Amino acid sequence: MDKIALVVGASGIIGSNLAQELLANGWTTYGLARKPNTEIAGLQPVAADLLNETGLETALADVAPTHVFITSWMRNDTEAENIRVNSAMVRNLLSVLSPKKSVQHVALVTGLKHYLGPFEAYAKEGVLPPTPLREEQPRLPIENFYYAQEDEVYAAAERDGFTWSIHRPHTIIGKAVGNQMNMGTTLAVYATLCKETGRPFRWPGSKAQWEGLSDVTDARVIAKQLIWAATTEEAKNEAYNVVNGDVFRWSWLWGRIADWFGVEAVGFDGTIHPLEREETFDQTLWGLIRRRSNLVEADLNRLVSPWHTDLDLGRPIEVMTDMKNSRKRGFTVFQSTEDSFFDLFKQLREDRLIP
């Protein structure tokens, strides 16, 4: 049977890696975004705004996917607005596809804010969950746009009869430009600027994150899990955490990253030093580096997301993730976290995004 994928958010870290994995496995693959990715060979771009249902109908008129992968979301000023906007995006998409009767499976990517709370209450005292984070942990008693997105998928599945899967990654490590949450590239640019100025590569986060155990999710790993869940009968209609499969302490990995860039590592010194401070990422200095090294991206803000890196590295608890739900059903992909970062840094250098 033909496998026709619609990747929603195909320009992002997860979506672009997923599109490449699908194409490599012989899927007919459409990539939907407001500004579609045209750099992936074989990906059929679909330009659409998920908040414009009429425009969405027009854009998808000739597309009848068997599998839908939702990797996109939009950040807003309040959680109430996050809920309104992001639930509408999922609802509009599935409503437009409903009359086609082609959809067999819908996969939704959310994340660990399912357990740690939304941006307005993220990892705050009073809502801190026990770790490792497990799929069976109940929803927090606070509003969360991830819950609203899930509920839209559940409602559409009941209406249209397709199966579903929910995927909850930790911090995603992979290449994307213009992404809202991009720790790997943010740290690469930070280290590059430290080297240029002679500043130390100083740990920006909390003591708990510096000393505690952690894990991350390689974009290539979640791409494989998304396809596995969509094509494995016993994997359907379940929620899955997804991380690399190893654990580490930042107190170890920080020095390894510093060595890769040839800068001096400085660990936790008793104070949090947010990367979002204005002087950390100097656009003028980046312009000088870009011109000297012939880099391709002039806008520093399209490479870094310090607000999100600060959010993750500043958490007051260690965070690691249990993957038993997919492991016991046969998903055994493993990725070294150290290699995730180093592979990314090499790719950024090869693509002339960092010197």
UniProtKB/TrEMBL annotation:
SUPFAM superfamilies: NAD(P)-binding Rossmann-fold domains
Domain PRISE-like Rossmann-fold: 59-267
Alphabetized InterPro entries for the sequence: NAD(P)-bd_dom_sf, PRISE-like_Rossmann-fold
CDD domains in alphabetical order: 5beta-POR_like_SDR_a
Protein name: Nucleoside-diphosphate-sugar epimerase
Annotated source species: Hymenobacter gelipurpurascens
